[in-house]
Every structure is written in C-alpha cells, then in structure tokens.
Amino acid sequence: MSTTLYDATVARFLQTLRATETVLEKGAAWSSENGSAPNDLVGAQLREDMFPLLFQIVSVRHHSLGALQGVEAGRFSPPPSVECDYAGLQDMVAQTVEELSEYDSETVNALADRELTFKTQRFSVDFKGDDFLLSFSLPNFYFHATTAYDILRAKGVPLGKRDFLGTMNTKG
C-alpha cells in the first residue's frame, strides 16, 4: 500500500469537514430544540483564554483549503479575521468542502516539493510543501476541528465520537 500526499491531506480534510458539517447541523438543531439561537454559539469558548467557535471554523478552513492554496502560492500566514453568524459558519464549511473537492491527486501530489514560507509579524519559517502540510497544517486542522466539536459538546449539544469521525473508509 502506498499513501499519497493527496490521501493524507485532502481525503482526510474532506472526511473531517463533512463530519464538521454534521456537528454544526446538530448544534443548530439543539439550539432550536432548547429555545436558544445558534448565533449564541458563535462566540462560545472552552475557556476564556481560548478562541471561540468562529475562530475554530475559520481555522479549519484555513488549515485545509488555505494550506493547499498557501503551498501553491509559496506563502502562508495566520488566518484572517472574519465575522459571521452561525449560518455563515455552516456555509464556510460547505464552501470549503466544495472547493477542496475540486483538487485532484495529481495536483496535490505535485505540491510535495514546492517551497513556501510561513510568515507572521514576529517570525518566518521555510517549509517544503509536504512537510508543511503534514507537520504543520494537518495537526492544526485536527486541533481546530476537535476544539469546535468540544465547544459544542461542552455547551450541551448531544455529540459523540462517531459525529467527529464522520464517514470512514471501510471495506466494501
């Protein structure tokens, strides 16, 4: 078995993004059932020193689609500041799935040896495309997807592990 860069990134991004769509749908349904507005969840945090749900979803997009675009462009920076409501978060995830689905394995696999610079106001780091995607963006992607799940779960949304895992590749 040979795993490609596409398999390790885009295929996994799509699995988790589709699961995140379901998690957000359950958050909206839970809000309605409990007489609250889904928009109340947008600013929800696990702790006061952590970023809210809004930032987690923006970061999920940024460390999947944005990471591929960054490798293509040769540069990557922290995610932009975005304001939107809960429906906007749902649209953002759906749009990310749609745009990521347009990438094919040949295009992504060709990014492995591309060079890029990750730059912030304080520092910059040079990467090869595959190292950036696998050692920086993929862990960040999972961190922010997990944190989004955890925020909603901590608020009372009835979520379980299968909601986070989404549709797995199974035999058959």
Fold and architecture overview:
The chain has a single domain (19-163), classed as Up-down Bundle (Four Helix Bundle (Hemerythrin (Met), subunit A)). 60% of the residues lie in helices and 7% in strands. The protein has 9 helices and 3 strands; from the N terminus they run H-H-H-H-H-E-H-H-E-E-H-H. It has helices at residues 5-8, 10-33, 39-42, 53-62, 65-73, 86-100, 105-109, 129-155, 161-165, and strands at 75-76, 115-119, 124-128. The chain has a 3-stranded mixed sheet. The longest helix is centred in the C-terminal third of the chain and has 27 residues, at 129-155. The model has no long low-confidence stretch (mean pLDDT 96).
What topology does this entry show?
Elements: H1 5-8, H2 10-33, H3 39-42, H4 53-62, H5 65-73, E1 75-76, H6 86-100, H7 105-109, E2 115-119, E3 124-128, H8 129-155, H9 161-165
